[in-house]
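Quick start: read one record
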Amino acid sequence: MFRTPLALFRTLAIAEAVSWTLLIGGLILRAAADLPLAVTIGGGIHGFVFLAYGATAVLVALNQRWGFGPTALAVVSAVIPYATVPTEIWLHRTGRLRGGWRFDESDDPRDRRPIDRLLRFFLRRPSVLALVLVAVVALVFVVLLVAGPPGGKG
């Protein structure tokens, strides 16, 4: 399904934009129709997709060997409504999403770094990678839910 970093990143960038729509729609329904449940649902979906996008951005950044700047831009773009889509377009146009997954070690000396070896280990086992990512995102999501919304519960 996600045969390339581009396919995975693009999917999550679009999902993040859609989740913003759900959150904003929920806020409108809460204000206009007194439906606070709409924010709970839209906000929950947005929060989970937000975290999944962040994890995906870091995974793709490691695979593509982005520097700090493009990585930070990709992650921070999720904070601004709909910014993940133009960020994905820019990353694609600048060639930062070109190429495939780095399953095998190359002659590049960076391939011998522990983080690159760990990346290749998980890339060769996509189901394990998916389970680990979902577990980490779910754990962070639960911790944030327990901590409560920014600024308290009103």
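The chain has six helices and no strands.
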